[in-house]
Amino acid sequence: MRIKTALPAAELGLYSLVLSGALAYAGRGLLEASQDGVHRKAFRESVRPGWEYIGRKMDVADFEWVMWFTSFRNVIVFALSGHVLFAKLCTMVAPQLRSWMYAVYGVLAVTGTMGPWYLLLLLGHCVGLYVASLLGQPWLCLGLGLASLASFKMDPLISWQSGFVTGTFDLQEVLFHGGSGFTVLRCTSFALESCAHPDRHYSLADLLKYNFYLPFFFFGPIMTFDRFHAQVSQVEPVRREGELWHIRAQAGLSVAAIMAVDVFFHFFYILTIPSDLKFANRLPDSALAGLAYSNLVYDWVKAAILFGVVNTVACLDHLDPPQPPKCITALYVFAETHFDRGINDWLCKYVYDHVGGEHSAVIPELAATVATFAITTLWLGPCDIVYLWSFLNCFGLNFELWVQKLAEWGPLARIEASLSVQMSRRVRALFGALNFWAIIMYNLVSLNSLEFTELVARRLLLTGEGQGMEIQNVPGTSLKDRDLPECLPPLVTPGTQQGGPTTSGRGWQEKSPQIWIA
């Protein structure tokens, strides 16, 4: 494919230098803006004391991140460490029982965290979908699964079911929605696999062992039942050569990323600034573009850390979990902008590929994406902002196919054929840069707010430069005086691949909707 054609090393180096310079320039503006706004009244709630010995405060606007690494840090470490310890002992003494050990430990952990009534609630959903699987009707299993998921997303059933949780604590709502939602997806996967393979006679015990695997229970990622069952049923699992080194490297990388985010939040208040639109409007275009970009990068880093930690534990258990998401900087097509590969695989297997077929025809592809994003909307929780996000990303995904079909049209195809493969890649990269910013703009809607997205779109596309903002530490100089082009182009590396429905038959991996877990 032309998009994979190698460009001269010097040219790629120049692109890397331009990208690095643009990011550094935007970062400088964000750093100065963070220093200038640290004492603003609007920042007081989400910018709290941090490294007092050097006078740095910390952005604590992300509630989940703060809870994970402050009040719940020891609980998380204790629970996962206990799982690893008991799993290792069981593997050494009775490896044939390790799947039972995973389930028992998970049930005890869920009961201790959320209470016995919450456990009974989830068991009720599990039994309901297990009974549906015995009937052997996939449409019934999928319909019941979606109905169960809807019961956790819409009132009045969600309010009633949340009452099953014992006690009150900071992360209660997050754990409730995560555990409940992933339980329904796992049970639906089990039911659909049972319908697809009636000769395998999966039991209720298989479902419970699958659902209550603790590392995946609350936050995912989700493995489809067939993959999990095949891997966890190995009586004497054997590690591949170099696997332990890879696990140690992954664990070290996760720790380093956590430390890097902690340092970053002491200097860049990227989560707080968007909440103060008056202040954000005073940023120059470079800093505003960097702010929008950095919000998506942070969400990717957050997902990568979460899945990196969980995947490290899963790898110690001889599982092959879904990989962390692809870096946002390397994305330039909607087909690859999924942050949760587990949900991506689930939707691919049970909805997207089933409806879309080969993903080469416009109408079936439209039907497949609409069905997929309808379920994604239900997963995220139906509301106006999610409806808008789903529409924009569904449109972006289909628009890419329409553009591809247009590019295959006779006159345009002949024009591209007359170009060298290197020049063809440069032209595609130019369109990819525009698509890169469309991805950012469309997903800012769900990550920040519609108002902030409107501000960024208006400034970068219509009105241009802001009002300027004087920086106290640089006399006579303003952020407005240090601007750069509005768009930071994505770096297209030699190994990247243009997504599309006709490339390799892998379908969903190359043409999949964006999945964001808030």
From TrEMBL:
TM annotation in the entry: 12-31, 65-87, 99-121, 127-152, 250-272, 427-445
Segments for region (Disordered): 492-518
Localization per record: Endoplasmic reticulum membrane
Record-linked InterPro entries: MB_O-acyltransferase, MBOAT_fam
Lineage: Eukaryota, Metazoa, Chordata, Craniata, Vertebrata
Name this protein carries in UniProt: Hedgehog acyltransferase like
Biased composition (Low complexity): 493-505
One cellular component (GO) term of this entry: perinuclear region of cytoplasm
Database matches in PANTHER family: ACYLTRANSFERASE (PTHR13285), PROTEIN-CYSTEINE N-PALMITOYLTRANSFERASE HHAT-LIKE PROTEIN (PTHR13285:SF19)
UniProtKB keywords: Endoplasmic reticulum, Membrane, Transmembrane, Transmembrane helix
Family, similarity comment: Belongs to the membrane-bound acyltransferase family. HHAT subfamily.
UniProt-recorded Gene Ontology molecular function terms: acyltransferase activity
Membrane topology: Multi-pass membrane protein
Chief location of this protein within or outside the cell: endoplasmic reticulum
